[in-house]
Design a protein that fits this description.
Blueprint lengths: L1 H11 L3 H14 L12 H4 L3 H13 L2 H14 L5 H17 L3 H18 L2 H13 L7 H16 L1
Helix pairs in contact: 1-2, 1-4, 2-4, 4-5, 5-6, 6-7, 6-8, 7-8, 7-9
Length: 159
């Protein structure tokens, strides 16, 4: 947990090499995690937990294409029962697409995230969708921006 938190810190300072090194080090320690506390073993309970952390860091670093590829990999493994996690990951994938200058892809992914947000009323997902809206500001007056507003309108209506 400390290594992955350090990786997040490294992403805040723009140090991709440190992010990768720290996540790789943490990966080498996964088999040694045996904590029975729910917060202590998320890395073992959540499929691709460390790749989720890496993708989140890459998104923060502005590496939209790399983050998007990791999100696709992660989303392929998310179980159907983990809808809130899936919605959060989709919102982050959409934000990565916006960072990669692919607003159409961002809107496409955001549609599914918005449906899940409406169904689950997840506050965490709403925060991620707010981040997406900020990332999509360059296109807010374009048709793509209007498409995003339409996709997210049901989320705003449900409060």
């Amino acid at each position: 947990m400390a290594l992955q938190q350090q990786a997040h810190g490294a992403s805040l300072t723009g140090d991709r090499q440190a992010v990768d090194t720290l996540i790789d080090q943490a990966s080498g320690l996964l088999s040694r995690v045996d904590d029975d506390l729910p917060w202590g073993n998320a890395c073992r309970r959540t499929p691709n937990y460390l790749e989720v952390q890496r993708a989140t860091c890459y998104g923060r670093l502005g590496l939209g294409r790399e983050a998007g590829a990791l999100w696709r990999q992660v989303l392929d493994e998310v179980p159907a029962t983990a809808r809130r996690d899936r919605g959060v990951y989709l919102a982050r994938q959409a934000t990565a697409a916006a960072a990669a200058q692919d607003p159409d892809q961002a809107v496409e992914v955001a549609r599914e995230a918005a449906r899940i947000a409406v169904d689950t009323r997840s506050v965490r997902m709403r925060r991620e969708l707010d981040t997406l809206q900020r990332a999509m500001r360059p296109w807010q007056d374009a048709p793509t921006g209007q498409d995003l507003a339409e996709a997210l309108a049901p989320v705003d209506e449900r409060g």
